[in-house]
């Protein structure tokens, strides 16, 4: 499967999500604020990719958060060769204060208050998420638990 998988990590105490600023050297969407995640490898399941990439990019252990078992949003795109790519966005929920140790794929990170997200130059997976009412409702339902 071609595509990527990300975790939008939410901290209930802060009412904020954790975003990384993509490196200025990134091939896709440089300098944008993005949930941590990355490329799905070979036959890897998107959920496994989300866990693996999150650990690689933040050094945050999966035993410190809970993640939705199903993606809250899936973005489908065609590349220049007309191959389908899928980007999966899962919702993670933290109940403690965490500071990531980012790798060189990112130049910075921020705990962004939900209400300030529209003011950030975000990766398309975030902006498209908020344009999809069904996905926003799924996210709200998961956060209200």
Describe this structure in words.
Strands 1, 2, 3, 4, 5, 6, 7 and 8 form an eight-stranded mixed sheet that branches. A hairpin with a 5-residue loop joins strand 6 (73-78) and strand 7. With 145 residues, the chain is an alpha+beta fold. The chain is built from three helices and eight strands; from the N terminus they run E-E-E-E-H-E-E-E-E-H-H. The mean pLDDT is 92. Helices cover 21% and strands 34% of the residues. The protein starts with a strand and ends with a helix. It has a single domain, classed as Nucleoside Triphosphate Pyrophosphohydrolase, CATH 3.90.79.10.
The unreliable regions are none
- Main sheet attributes: strand count, strand direction, barrel closure: 8 strands, mixed
The overall pLDDT, averaged over residues, is 92
Q: Order of helices and strands, N to C? A: EEEEHEEEEHH
CATH architecture tag: Alpha-Beta Complex
Q: At the third CATH level, what is the topology name?
A: Nucleoside Triphosphate Pyrophosphohydrolase
What is the general shape?
globular
Helix content: 10-25%
Q: In total, how many beta strands?
A: 8
Give the helix tally. 3
Q: How many domains?
A: 1
What do we call the CATH homologous superfamily? Answer: Nucleoside Triphosphate Pyrophosphohydrolase
In what range is the share of β-strand residues? 25-35%
CATH class: Alpha Beta
Distance between the termini: 32 Å
Determine Rg (CA atoms, Å). 14 Å
Structural class: alpha+beta
In short, what is this structure?
By secondary structure, the protein is an alpha+beta fold. The chain is 21% helix and 34% strand. The chain is built from 3 helices and 8 strands; from the N terminus they run ββββαββββαα.
